[in-house]
Amino acid sequence: MKLKFGTVEENVVTREEFPLEKAKETLKDEVIAVLGYGVQGPGQALNLKDNGFNVIVGQRKNSKTWDKAVEDGWVPGETLFELEEAAQRGTILQYLLSDAGQIALWPTVKNHLTSGKALYFSHGFGVTYKDKTGIVPPSDVDVILVAPKGSGTSLRRMFVEGRGLNSSYAIYQDATGKAKDRVVALGIGVGSGYLFETDFYREVTSDLTGERGTLMGAIQGIFAAQYEVLRANGHTPSEAFNETVEELTQSLMPLVAENGMDWMYANCSTTAQRGALDWWKPFRDATKPVFEELYSSVKEGKEAVKSIDSNSKDDYRAKLEGELQELRESEMWQAGAVVRKLRPENN
Q1: Which of 198, 227, 258 is the last residue before a domain boundary?
Q2: Domain residue limits at 187
Q3: Number of helical (H) and strand (E) elements in the chain, helices listed first
Q4: What CATH number should be reported for the domain holding residue 251?
Q5: Cβ atoms of residues 308 and 132 within 8 Å
Q6: Looking at the whole model, is its pTM more than 0.70?
Q7: How confident is the model at residue 86 (pLDDT cuts 50, 70, 90)?
Q8: What is the mean pLDDT of the chain?
Q9: pLDDT at 117 over 80
Q10: Please, what is the angle between helix 217-232 and helix 331-341, to 10°?
Q11: Is there a single domain that holds both residue 135 and residue 242?
Q12: What is the phi/psi pair of residue 285, to 5°?
């Protein structure tokens, strides 16, 4: 179906027009090999399995993620294999390793991409930046993408709750004539709420911008700025954290998710409404140049180069843990840990 936003039309697919039974019929002869069991792998693999698809998992033996897969019910030698064996067995290879992991394993995976198979991504990075990653799929396989708009943890949690997480879908290469049906069936199978059309380039540029922007980078920066101003002016850690993070995440964002920002405004005090309406444009004007700089860096490939260079270094994990520790041990997030423990559901 088509969605209209003024003069702009978008192609979307809903569960009503492509129900789960149709998805299972479409993929009844396929073996879906989920390669990687880190961020997206568990949620997508478990949802597919619970939805009745033929799924196997590929992961490195003697790793924490292998052990996690076993704990989740995948059986070594039956539904859980080493990465190369899973790639050989699968007719659809869901390439869900990290971007750095995809680069490292690509020669192995490419060897098992025989004619008619499908190569599936949940991020357009590897193919879009192929001159940097070396990921150039063979011409006789389908190359498709389903990108859930959230973490694998959220995808699984919402599935278990009977809800769905919206996903984008794209076709980079249709070698078999079945790519559209394959990608939509997989999108329904992994638990998408609805699917909206994109392409690999637009997916990766929007995703890299979003992660560095409002989804993670910008929101942490704004949290830190407000928290620090409140603390500098004599507010306690608990008060500063509650006014900065807790009220937003626990009270206001659920209202935005329910019916939109205007509805959330309408359900707040008139004083809050007035202040929000007066200040949102100054915040937009102050941050828009930063977003323009960010998007330019993404578009020019600078962010991709930074990611590849840093993730390929031997000390990457140690440095990452150090940076995460800095966040974790900051006063704001230490206050957050205390506040979360005091929520009624935790007592």
Answers
A1: 198
A2: 2-198
A3: 19, 10
A4: 1.10.1040.10
A5: yes
A6: yes
A7: very high
A8: 94
A9: yes
A10: 90
A11: no
A12: -65, -35
123 included as an active-site residue: yes
Written as six digits, the tokens of 116 are: 């008619």
Distance separating alpha carbons of residues 207 and 215, to the nearest angstrom: 9
Final residue of a structural domain among 143, 166, 198 = 198
DSSP string, 307-338: HHHHHTSTTHHHHHHHHHHHHHTSHHHHHHHH
Same domain for 18 and 136, yes or no, is: yes
pLDDT mean over 252-266: 92
Structure tokens at 164: 């769905």
Dmax over CA atoms of the chain, in Å, equals 66
User: Which one from 49, 117, 123, 231 is the annotated catalytic residue?
Assistant: 123
Radius of gyration of the chain (CA): 22
Cβ 60 vs Cβ 86: under 8 Å? no
pLDDT given at position 232: 98
Number of domains making up the chain: 2
Q: How many CB atoms lie within 10 A of CB 194?
A: 19
| Residue owning tokens 């998992």 | 57
317 burial via Cβ count (<10 Å: 0-12, 13-18, 19+): exposed
